[in-house]
Specification:
mainly beta, Elongation Factor Tu (Ef-tu), domain 3, YaeB-like fold, 2 domains, 6-stranded antiparallel barrel, 4-stranded mixed beta sheet, 12 strands, 31% strand, binds S-adenosylmethionine
Length: 242
């Protein structure tokens, strides 16, 4: 057996995003471009010299810790099989054939867009297309190299394309709440993009009357699924400040 000493990792920064809670966050980056997010570097990594030249790249790889998932290595209860939502939540695949958040070492990898670098106080990277909960510790940043890393023809197993989108409708009350807010337009866009992914657990996707809540920015968005002649539609019942 190879003797590999355990190592510790130091987060270089932390995510601030429109997602205060992990429920409802799209399952990959790029699915809700209206979501606002920043990566704030922490000392001693908040030196502007560390990001010199990064402004010339449009996209970045972030390596981060799924800090809200259980630490399977520490508990020694890691499971080799997971149930991806894309397979309906019942079929199992190997953890290393998945992007599951329940994995050894809890490491995640997201390709995000770099919008702006702000070095007025420390370093803040303004990002788009993030799929991370606010407070996620980031372990490393690397610029994305499309000539080496983009493979549009690659096989993608059980997730060959972006998930289907459901239509989203707002109740009169929810629309009125949005109209009163200065960020109403962008919040409405964000709610639509998030709910169109149908965040309900995969095993609950049949007809049901339950009302779910998803936290976005400073609101709780209450929604339910409704059957229509053309399939399922998501209806925003109300938007409540938290
Ligand atoms: N793109 C990344 C990857 O492939 O490693 C993340 C994919 S993972 C399936 C995306 C989900 O992780 C989100 O829908 C959200 O529910 C969850 N999530 C985001 N940040 C998290 C965190 N810090 N800890 C645990 N789960 C998180």
């Amino acid at each position: 057996m190879i003797d590999i000493p355990p190592s510790t990792l130091s987060p270089i920064g932390v995510i601030e995003s429109d997602y205060p809670d992990k429920f409802g966050i799209p399952r990959q980056p790029g699915l809700a471009p209206a979501a606002r997010a920043s990566l704030i570097l922490v000392p001693p990594f908040d030196d502007p010299l560390a990001v010199r030249g990064l402004e010339d790249f449009s996209h970045l790889w972030l390596t981060f810790l799924f800090h809200l998932s259980p630490d399977r290595c520490a508990s020694r209860h890691w499971a080799p099989l997971v149930r991806p939502p894309r397979l309906g939540g019942n079929a199992r695949v190997g953890v290393f054939a998945s992007r599951s958040t329940h994995r050894p070492n809890r490491l995640g990898l997201s390709l995000v867009e770099l919008v702006e670098i702000d070095t007025r106080r420390g370093v803040r990277l303004v990002l788009r297309d993030v799929d991370l909960v606010s407070g996620t510790p980031v372990l490393d940043i690397k610029p994305y190299l499309p000539w080496a890393e983009a493979h549009p023809q690659a096989r993608a197993g059980f997730a060959p394309e972006a998930p289907p989108l459901l239509p989203v409708a707002f109740s009169t009350g929810a629309a009125a709440t949005l109209a009163e807010r200065p960020d109403g337009d962008s919040l409405g866009e964000l709610i639509t993009q998030v709910l169109a992914q149908d965040p309900r657990p995969a095993y609950r996707r049949g007809a049901e009357t339950r009302i779910y809540g998803v936290r976005l920015r400073d609101v709780d968005v209450r929604f339910q699924a409704a059957a229509t002649d053309n399939g399922t539609r998501i209806e925003v019942v109300e938007i409540v400040a938290v």
